[in-house]
Write a structure and sequence with these properties.
Layout lengths: L1 H16 L8 H20 L4 H15 L3 H16 L5 H8 L2
């Protein structure tokens, strides 16, 4: 639970840091992917259902990324993370955040 809150806090900080930009930077995209991997892994280990994980992580993505195409790409990566059997954040990050 603490990791989930920490991930949410990191997303909030990133959103504030990039609030004045017109588009999403590559650094923000990379950070969002890492946070998504950590959040998905944490929620999987807490035995959340896939639908709940998708909903929670999607709200983090929507709050952080401004460009719709980037949101779509982040959502696709997140969906693949949720469907993956791996429950380790570093494994998910290696597979989907490159």
């Amino acid at each position: 639970m603490k990791k989930t809150l920490l991930a949410g806090l990191c997303v909030s900080v990133a959103a504030i840091a990039f609030a004045n930009t017109v588009s999403d930077s590559s650094a923000l995209m990379a950070q969002q992917c890492k946070i998504s991997a950590e959040t998905v892994a944490t929620l999987k280990n807490l035995q959340y259902g896939n639908t709940a994980i998708r909903k929670d992580v999607a709200s983090l993505i929507s709050a952080t990324l401004k460009v719709q195409e980037n949101r779509d790409d982040a959502q696709k990566a997140m969906n693949r993370m949720v469907d993956d059997k791996a429950k380790d954040a570093s494994t998910l990050e290696m597979k989907y955040c490159s």
